[in-house]
Design goal:
about 300 residues, alpha/beta, Rossmann fold, Alpha-Beta Plaits, 2 domains, six-stranded mixed beta sheet, four-stranded antiparallel beta sheet, about 30% strand, binds adenosine-5'-triphosphate
Length: about 300
């Protein structure tokens, strides 16, 4: 079976009591993609992921994961997926090794223990201590190892770098990229925009149970307004640049002018060619700024 989509979700709705958590979510993730799932707290990311594994039942809509209906074939779906939940429950009295061997048994023994050791080493995770003595970050590492241990076709990772120090966050991103290089699909939610920008080829942004944007990460950033700072050799009337189509003058400070540019830079560059320019810098917004622009009102309310 050559099924091109790793995940297809149509019109997914979920209510908790009367409160809507998902209001018609549509998503498509292709095989072999690294896909970032972004949204503020409570937007519906975890609910979407849990529906994909039939850990909770939606009220409406359809889901296909690796071509399978998770409600009809939950065991088959879970066998082919590596899942890192937001809150992984681990048995306190087991050692790290004991917990990982337990997860390996759940996978029907299809786990190469050498690979588990390699993952643990790379994440600087000691296999000997008891789970109850682990820090939050080390528990998170156990979660990452159990998600990856059986080299699944699809990784569903809910905040994979949560609680990890920057070095380990970096290592997890490496592991994600390596899984992708071995043709796995990676779907991960995150609050850390720089990491999504670094590894995700496409992103979806969810807000109050609805998808507000799905785009290639690079095009999202390219499409956004750019800022340009121009320093002149002598005072000029910066306002004149505001007549160039797509250009807005944000501020002028002596011989320095800050501009916002929509679309092509060509018009601005032609206008500047007639002026005594000493220095010219442009800056693209980060994914973080784009995210904040989408969610400013929500985040304001949350505060
Ligand atoms: P976070 O980033 O905080 O984990 P999220 O995007 O994963 O958030 P969800 O956990 O999916 O969001 O929650 C979506 C909405 O559903 C929120 O309003 C949340 O309060 C509500 N919700 C989630 N789980 C339950 C539950 N078991 N019972 C009642 N309401 C719930």
């Amino acid at each position: 079976m050559n099924q091109p989509m790793a995940i297809t979700i149509r019109g997914l709705t979920k209510f908790y009591g009367k409160a809507p958590a998902l209001r018609g979510v549509d998503l498509e993730v292709g095989r072999g993609e690294i896909f970032g799932f972004l949204g503020p707290n409570g937007a519906g990311k975890t609910t979407t992921i849990r529906c994909m594994l039939d850990l909770i039942r939606p009220n409406g809509g359809t889901i296909r994961v690796l071509g399978l209906d998770p409600q009809a074939e939950p065991v088959a779906v879970r066998a082919r997926v590596g899942y890192l939940p937001g809150e992984l429950r681990l048995e306190d009295n087991l050692t790290v090794e004991g917990a990982l061997r337990y997860f390996a048994r759940l996978r029907g023994g299809r786990v190469d223990w050498g690979f588990v050791r390699e993952l643990a080493e790379r994440l600087d995770l000691d296999l000997k201590p008891a789970i109850k003595n682990l820090s939050h970050g080390n528990k998170q590492k156990v979660g990452v190892v159990q998600a990856l241990m059986h080299r699944p076709e699809l990784l569903l990772l809910d905040e994979p770098t949560l609680g990890l120090d920057p070095l380990m966050q970096h290592e997890v991103l490496h592991l994600i990229a390596e899984a992708r290089a071995e043709e796995a699909t990676v779907f991960f939610s995150s609050h850390i925009m720089s990491e999504v920008q670094a590894v995700a080829e496409r992103v979806a942004m969810i807000r109050r149970g609805e998808i507000v944007e799905v785009a290639e990460t690079a095009s999202l950033i390219n499409r956004a307004l750019r800022r340009a700072r121009v320093r002149f050799g002598q005072p000029v009337d910066g306002k004149l640049l505001g007549n160039v189509p797509g250009v807005t003058v944000l501020s002028q400070d002596g011989t320095s002018v800050l501009l916002q540019v929509a679309g092509e830079m060509n018009g601005l560059i032609k206008a500047l060619a007639t002026l005594p320019v000493r220095d010219f810098e442009t800056e693209r917004p980060s994914l973080e700024e784009i995210f904040l622009a989408h969610y400013e009102s929500d985040l304001g309310e949350a505060k």
